[in-house]
Each structure stands twice: as structure tokens, then as C-alpha cells.
């Protein structure tokens, strides 16, 4: 039994010191520890570079030929707050009009149907657009006010013809049929037409994005001489946030500012526009177009304009000037879908 027990020096009893040259337990243990440390060091070095950088998402936007686009666009403008500074003789009149304008909300909802054709020789895709449904509501403090008469019906008679570029951006749009009503100039068609951003092919990783800048009229036209046609710049920054196999979501940050090329046309008249907002938009990677878009922003307008003399009040002969501060909440929502009506979607 003793002959089969291990000796202190790692050899078996009954075998001389020269009977074998295998490693001792201590030597074997040290080798195992060294191997473990070496492997750990290798793992640490391999992991030092961190996780692999995700592949960028490829965006290949495109116009869909021989298809029907259905777009539902909702634009809501609310006069959140209005204040003024004016000489004593004008304050009663200013208070009356600001009281009528404050907390008034105008909501427009329109459904567009676009029918696309085959590309023309220049590579653009012609389309025809109709307003299949239109609704407008004006409310003060949540209570409906007098509607726009025949305007709702007249809008549904409108027809436009236009062109998509190969990326699906509208490059031309012209009204070709429908009723003419001066009240339509007060509708938010410029915001409806530009509710979705322009986009071109690109590669983006999560956290990266692009910017879309548009020149627009004010959402509510100013009835002040010299400021009727004032325009502003809307800048929207899109950042890639959520990624799925066929759809991605962008966060949207919006800013508003004066258009430097649009200035008051009457001396001593001034207007400062600023504001910001946020929202999100989803993009269909397979079809190459935006499916939804929503944003809400707060637009502030500070203006100063000269006053006209009031009849029967000699103290106003020199006129003077007044200042006003307006806060407008602007909400825009878009839902879009497209379906092929002729041929295969892959061709």
C-alpha cells in the first residue's frame, strides 16, 4: 500500500528518483495558473476595443410609380397668449381684439389622394393630387365658433398636378382645377405641403441624422400693414433613434426664426420670430418613404408697429406705436400609406 502512495517530492514510492521525470504537483499548479492568467489577459485584450460598431442603416428613398398615395394631414394652430403695450387712448380697442383672439384654436384636417404615373423622359414621376376630404373647425376656449360656410366643400373640388424626383420629393406642384375662394389663402396649405421632410439616399447610425429647412408664411396671417406677407424659417433636425428590420423612428427637434429675406414693408415696423418644438417620425425602409410624422412647437412673435390717429381724439394725432407679444402653438400630424395599383412593386 505504501508503495502506491505519492511521496513528498512527487515521485511514487518504490521508484527511484530517476524512475520518472514528470512535473510535480506544485509545478503543474503553477503552470495551470499561468495558463489561466494568460487566457484572461488575452480575453481582456480582445475586449479592450469594446463592442463592434453597428452597421449604418441604408436609406434609399424613392417615388412609387403606378401607385396611390393616401395622406392624412392635420394642422392645429392655437393662440395661447396675446399681450400688448399701447398708449392709453388705444388700450380699450387693443383689449377687445386680444380678448377675442386669445385661446382661439383653428384645426384643419385634410385627406389627399395622389395617383402616380410612369416616369417622364427627364426622370421625374408625374402625379395627380385631389383633396378627398377636408374639415375645418374654429373654437374659442374649447367651444366651436361659426364655421367657414362653403369652404369645406370647395376645398374638395381642388386638383393639383405635380412631379416627384426619383427620391420621392415633390419638386413641382400646381393647382389645375377647383373653386377659387379668397378664404383659402388663410388655410395652412404651405404647412400641409411641407409636413414631410425632403430626403435623399444616405447612411446613418443610431444618434446620427439630417436637417430639413423650409421657408413658410406665418401659420396665422398678421393683419398689420407691412407685415401681411411676412415669412419665417423652420428648421427640423432628425436624429435616428429606434431601429427595426423594416422601419426606423427619428426624433425631431424644430426651431423657428425670421427669414432674413422677408422684412417689414412699412417704416418703423418690426417683428421678431422665434420658437422651438419636438416630435417624432417613422420611416419605411422597404418602401423608402415616411409613414408618420408628428410635431408640436411654440412660436413666439414680438412686433412693433406705428399707430394711426383715432377720430375725435386729438391726443392721438402723433400716432405713436404699439407693441404686441403673441404665442402660437403649432401641431402637425401626418399619416401616409401607399399601394401599387398596377404591375409588381419590385419593378
Please outline the helices and strands.
Layout: H1 25-47, E1 57-59, E2 67-85, H2 88-101, E3 104-116, E4 125-140, E5 143-144, H3 151-155, E6 159-164, E7 170-177, H4 189-193, E8 202-204, E9 209-217, E10 231-243, E11 247-258, E12 270-284, E13 289-306, E14 321-340
Antiparallel strand pairs: 1-8, 2-3, 2-14, 3-4, 4-5, 4-6, 6-7, 9-10, 10-11, 11-12, 12-13, 13-14
Rg over C-alpha atoms, rounded to the nearest angstrom = 35 Å
Q: Strand share of the residues? A: over 45%
**Terminal Cα separation, in Å?**
87 Å
The helix tally amounts to: 4
SSE order: HEEHEEEHEEHEEEEEEE
Quick one: overall form? Answer: globular
**Mean pLDDT rating:** 85
Describe this protein's structure:
It is a single chain. The chain is 14% helix and 45% strand. With 347 residues, it is mainly beta. Strands 2, 3, 4, 5, 6, 7, 9, 10, 11, 12, 13 and 14 form a twelve-stranded antiparallel sheet that branches. A two-stranded antiparallel sheet has the order 1-8. The protein is globular and about 75 Å long. It starts with 24 loop residues before the first helix and ends in a 7-residue tail after the last strand.
Concise overview:
By secondary structure, the protein is mostly beta strands.
List keywords for this structure.
347 residues; mainly beta; twelve-stranded antiparallel sheet; two-stranded antiparallel ribbon; disordered N terminus
Amino acid at each position: 500500500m505504501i508503495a502506491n502512495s505519492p511521496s513528498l517530492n512527487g515521485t511514487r514510492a518504490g521508484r527511484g528518483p530517476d524512475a520518472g521525470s514528470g512535473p510535480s504537483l506544485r509545478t503543474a499548479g503553477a503552470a495551470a495558473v499561468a495558463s489561466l492568467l494568460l487566457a484572461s489577459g488575452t480575453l481582456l485584450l480582445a475586449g479592450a476595443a469594446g463592442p463592434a460598431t453597428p452597421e449604418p442603416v441604408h436609406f434609399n428613398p424613392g417615388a412609387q410609380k403606378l401607385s396611390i398615395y393616401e395622406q392624412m394631414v392635420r394642422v392645429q394652430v392655437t393662440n395661447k397668449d396675446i399681450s400688448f403695450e399701447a398708449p392709453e387712448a388705444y388700450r380699450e380697442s387693443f383689449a377687445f381684439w386680444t380678448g377675442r383672439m386669445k385661446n382661439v384654436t383653428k384645426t384643419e384636417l385634410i385627406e389627399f389622394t395622389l395617383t402616380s404615373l410612369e416616369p417622364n423622359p427627364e426622370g421625374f414621376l408625374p402625379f395627380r393630387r385631389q383633396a378627398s376630404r377636408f374639415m375645418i373647425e374654429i373654437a374659442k376656449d374649447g367651444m366651436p365658433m361659426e364655421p367657414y360656410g362653403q369652404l369645406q366643400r370647395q376645398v374638395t373640388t381642388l386638383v393639383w398636378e405635380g412631379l416627384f424626383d426619383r427620391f420621392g420629393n415633390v419638386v413641382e406642384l400646381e393647382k389645375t382645377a377647383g373653386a377659387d375662394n379668397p378664404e383659402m389663402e388663410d388655410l395652412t396649405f404651405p404647412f400641409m405641403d411641407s409636413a414631410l421632410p425632403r430626403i435623399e439616399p444616405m447612411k446613418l447610425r443610431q444618434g446620427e441624422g439630417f436637417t430639413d429647412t423650409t421657408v413658410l408664411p406665418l401659420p396665422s396671417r398678421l393683419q398689420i400693414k407691412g407685415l401681411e406677407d411676412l415669412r419665417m424659417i423652420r428648421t427640423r433636425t432628425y436624429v435616428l433613434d429606434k431601429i427595426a428590420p423594416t422601419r426606423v423612428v427619428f426624433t425631431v427637434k424644430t426651431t423657428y426664426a425670421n427669414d432674413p429675406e422677408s422684412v417689414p414693408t412699412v417704416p418703423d415696423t418690426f417683428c421678431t420670430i422665434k420658437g422651438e418644438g419636438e416630435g417624432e417620425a417613422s420611416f419605411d425602409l422597404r418602401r423608402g418613404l415616411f409613414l408618420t410624422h408628428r410635431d408640436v412647437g411654440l412660436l413666439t412673435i414680438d412686433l412693433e408697429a406705428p399707430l394711426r390717429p383715432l377720430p375725435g381724439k386729438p391726443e392721438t394725432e402723433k400716432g405713436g406705436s404699439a407693441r404686441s407679444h403673441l404665442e402660437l402653438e403649432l401641431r402637425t400630424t401626418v399619416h401616409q400609406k401607399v399601394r401599387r395599383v398596377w404591375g409588381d412593386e419590385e419593378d
